[in-house]
């Protein structure tokens, strides 16, 4: 039988004796000014406190305390299914009003939520949110990182790169490096959609060279650090798609200026290569897509990019920031950069003695490698005679199969066609048809290269020369590469003997004339010079 409540505080070791934990069948008696307050029916009791705010009591709690004070258990109403209901028929008189107020609040909240949802749908733009719906405008700090992205790439110099263009069976994959400082791209091209592009690619901002390899593995791998020296051909970069578009995109990711984005969105946080990044959506200068997705870390370094090229082909670029291998351009793109400097006195003396050295040689066999255009990759063999001066060569045009004989004197060039089944070397004596052919001014870069070689025997290079680098020919001969005004480079050994002359063309490609120094010119060159 329940005992009457005497108002005595419970012992400290009982749960009800702990301050702040109430037991429904006892009154609190405190020594710090708390006073017992008479109970109200159905509402439990209230405390009058001098220092602590009143703690609200629940309706169910008031009923339980009232029942216990009356010496009986509180009455619980039950639902038809037998479950007890704590807020049943003995609710206080203001219960229904309170439920009506709560119901009105719920209706108002539902109306506000519906209006917000409709407004959001009306202002939603495709691509401006991710799958979690967390997209938001860029903060000022995030916009600054996008603005500095290309400058950061240029400062980092280079990075490993993997590019995927297209999808499915039309997919082309490219693996290699981009050097933003030079700038230069070096890639191995593969994938099911590579087609005739399968092989190696090297490209600068103005020229694109390919080395086709139809038998290469379908899946590309990192290209060799030292590229092969042969079989490189020029490719006309088609605007907006293909290798030209990939070249423009990769090189365009480096710049010396900051580009503040006009607008942008933060999509989500992510990780790239173990590095925390933000996935941002903002315009990027070299990409035709106005809203590519950019994976950018806290230091404004780009790790990934997805978007579309100018022809709407999807493209994904993954950058490996730690893969900073030094890229060696092929000779047609200028070769290794070296450390250019002014010539020493000894080197300047070798350049000044070049005309006399050429005249003393009288002549030499030559070979020409001139990637002039996609349909005019020229190869030529023949002789140069500085005593005449004149040059006589057999020229073949790869791709078209066109073959000619060319005879050159300073400022004049004569040319005649020749049989496609003839030898690669020019015949001797010089055909009468070539001797009788009309001569005109140099017509292409090959003519200008031969003209520069002949004129070099007249006078030393004028203007300031630059010693570009030290190099080796055939793995044996050490040479110094000197660049002189007019876009020409002479390869001279330490004794001053010339081994190569290069000429820079309009597209930024270097075509070369290799000299077999120390050997006399053949009878064809001498005969041609005598006839004229």
Question: How is this structure best described in words?
Answer:
This protein is α+β, with helices and mostly antiparallel strands and 532 residues long. It is 20% helix and 29% strand. The protein has helices at 59-69, 95-123, 140-156, 242-252, 345-352, 354-361, 432-436, 445-455, 523-531, and strands at residues 35-36, 47-48, 77-78, 84-85, 136-137, 158-165, 172-179, 184-190, 199-203, 208-212, 233-234, 265-272, 275-281, 293-296, 302-308, 314-320, 363-371, 377-385, 390-398, 403-409, 412-417, 466-473, 477-484, 488-493, 498-504, 510-515. It has a 12-stranded antiparallel sheet, with helices on one face. The longest helix is centred in the first third of the chain and has 29 residues, at 95-123. The protein is elongated and about 120 Å long. The model is unreliable at 1-94, 113-131 and 523-532 (pLDDT under 50).
Describe the structure in brief.
The chain is built from 9 helices and 26 strands.
Blueprint of the fold:
Blueprint (H helix, E strand, L loop, with lengths): L34 E2 L10 E2 L10 H11 L7 E2 L5 E2 L9 H29 L12 E2 L2 H17 L1 E8 L6 E8 L4 E7 L8 E5 L4 E5 L20 E2 L7 H11 L12 E8 L2 E7 L11 E4 L5 E7 L5 E7 L24 H8 L1 H8 L1 E9 L5 E9 L4 E9 L4 E7 L2 E6 L14 H5 L8 H11 L10 E8 L3 E8 L3 E6 L4 E7 L5 E6 L7 H9 L1
Antiparallel strand pairs: 1-2, 3-4, 5-12, 6-7, 6-16, 7-8, 8-9, 9-10, 10-11, 12-13, 13-14, 14-15, 15-16, 17-18, 17-26, 18-19, 19-20, 20-21, 22-23, 23-24, 24-25, 25-26
